[in-house]
Design a protein that fits this description.
The complex is a heterodimer of chains A (247) and B (77). Chain A has 247 residues and is of the alpha/beta class. Chain A has one domain: Rossmann fold (3-Layer(aba) Sandwich), CATH 3.40.50.720. Chain A has nine helices and seven strands. In chain A, helix 2 links the parallel strand 2 and strand 3. In chain A, helix 1 packs across helix 9. Chain A is globular and about 45 Å long. The two termini of chain A are 33 Å apart. Chain B has one domain: ACP-like (Non-ribosomal Peptide Synthetase Peptidyl Carrier Protein, Chain A), CATH 1.10.1200. The longest helix of chain B is centred in the first third of the chain and has 15 residues. Chain B is globular and about 25 Å long. Classes of the chains: A alpha/beta (247), B mainly alpha (77). At the A-B interface, helix 4 of A face helix 2 of B.
Chain lengths: 247, 77
């Protein structure tokens, strides 16, 4: 049994890591639903899936809203069937040093990056339980393990995601549902392209591989966890960071 | 009445993987039939499907025995 024909839902799939994951799961034969925060983004997802010959569509979704999550999961189910693979990838940053961090910077990062995982999983878990098959893959960050000055909110959300995954893995293992995190390091995406050049060079010096990672290198690990080959891996966090952090 | 009772008992036996004769009217899912908390949620899901009804979480939590399940379905048909 492969993931051929199974419905995979990937949040934050417009570009970067999310897009690479959508294409990787599509390559494995999954029906792919990618979500974006805007209608334009959803259209571009539909386009790139079509171009790659992948069955599926882009949907507009606000992972920060219960109503939006409920509506999209229902629409996906009606159009394609129950979600079997969920990849919580959508995330934002609102960096600030703690002494200056506003409560809304804290709240928005926690809501979009962590509470969204609760919402998405809650919406899909019944179907997975019934099917006796499911894959929940949460895209964390190396920052969850290492910490990073200016990212107390982001690190809290990502660490929270990893703890959530371990707890849920224990709950649903008996139903053949695996729950894991993939923790990218510095990956060449829009999220990191905004960093100042000297900051980037300094970072590269800390990476044994001496370069930033590519989105496809993260997607390959997500693809493994989603596939049958990854079926005995659960409650784990797999690091994809060129060696910048080793536990 | 007995029809509902039979259908409920059949679902309980299927969901919890026990023999139908073990599903006596006063049996508790957890204590007598070996269900864990996930089993009881799935059991409620199966009842919802069979009887085309939606059981709110706060009601579902109270359905802990065969009798309570039958009573609930009878009251909400």
């Amino acid at each position: 049994m492969s993931i051929e024909g199974k419905v995979a839902l990937i949040t934050g799939a417009t570009r970067g890591i999310g897009k690479a994951i959508a294409l990787e799961l599509g390559r494995q034969g999954a029906v792919v639903v990618g979500t974006a925060t805007s209608d334009n983004g959803a259209t571009s997802i539909t386009h790139y899936l079509q171009e790659a010959g992948v069955t599926g569509a882009g949907f507009c979704l606000d992972v920060g809203s219960n109503e939006s999550v409920g509506a999209v999961i229902k629409a996906v189910q009606d159009q394609f069937g129950p979600v079997a693979i969920i990849v919580n990838n959508a995330g934002i940053t609102r960096d600030n040093i703690m002494l200056r961090m506003k409560e809304d910077e804290w709240d928005s990062v926690l809501n979009t990056n962590l509470t969204s995982v609760y919402r998405m999983v809650k919406g899909c878990l019944r179907g997975m339980t019934k099917a006796r098959w499911g894959r929940i893959i949460n895209v964390s960050s190396v920052v969850a393990s290492m910490g990073n000055a200016g990212q107390a909110n982001y690190a809290a959300a990502k660490s929270g995601m990893e703890g959530f995954s371990r707890a849920l893995a224990r709950e649903v293992g008996s139903r053949n549902i695996t729950v894991n995190c993939v923790a990218p390091g510095f990956i060449d995406t829009d999220m990191t392209s905004g960093l100042p050049e000297e900051h980037k060079l300094a970072l590269q010096k800390q990476i044994p591989m001496g370069r930033l990672g590519q989105p496809e290198e993260v997607a390959a690990v997500v693809g493994f966890l989603a596939s049958d080959a990854g079926g005995y891996v659960t409650g784990d966090t797999i690091h994809v960071n060129g060696g910048m952090y080793m536990s | 009445m007995s029809n509902i009772e039979d259908r409920v008992k059949k679902i309980i036996a299927e969901q919890l993987g026990v023999k139908e004769e073990e599903v006596t009217i006063d049996a508790s899912f957890v204590e007598d039939l070996g269900a864990d908390s996930l089993d009881t949620v799935e059991l409620v899901m199966a009842l919802e499907e069979e009887f085309e009804t939606e059981i709110p979480d706060e009601e579902a939590e109270k359905i802990t025995t065969v009798r309570l399940a039958i009573d609930y379905i009878n009251a909400h048909q």
